[in-house]
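Entry 12.
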Amino acid sequence: MYGIIIVRTIFLYVVILLIFRLMGKREIGELSILDLVVFIMIAEMAVMAIEQPTDALMNTLLPMIVLLLIQITLAWISMKSKRFRDLVDGKPTILINKGKIDEGMMRKQRYNFDDLLLQLRENNVSNIADVEFAILEPSGKLSVIEKDKNTNEQDITLPLILDGEINEENIKTIGKSLFWLRKELKDRGYPNTKDISFCSYQNGEFYIDLTDQ
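Predicted 3D structure (tokens):
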């Protein structure tokens, strides 16, 4: 009996490593909700298979394979659809914008000042006054951009277009309009935003990357 448990444990260990490898490389702190759900379910299945050595392994392997196929399919959809990514993973949230704390966004994310100060310290920032931008990523990580000590002001790169879809919220954040963006792109030879995979604007300069044909 113990020998069977050892063999099943080693076998499932190898299978899970293979499944996670096929799911792609993601840092633990950057796992999406989909990744986390699949990881938890697979781990639970593996534990049950080890604790019940008399059950057929196929009863565990089949659901694992199904989860793998679901995960790969949803990852492919996520790559193709910005709306699907936003629905599943959420969007980055600017908590500090040009030195000003956005309490409304903090309440919306159920994020308090203790959380903010903690994550600022984790970014080696001891004074909120030194922060130009603080962005709460979908993973829960806080990205911090400090003020330029020389100019006391710094800009941030916000995506205006992702996968051909215009982000009107980010356009408003930088103080521009949808009309302005379309005109600037048209003047630069990009009349169709659907052809643009990524577009950002920083310090008066555009960065534009076209969709691969």
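Annotation: The beta strands are 93-97, 100-101, 131-136, 142-146, 158-162, 165-166, 196-202, 205-210. The longest helix spans residues 58-80.
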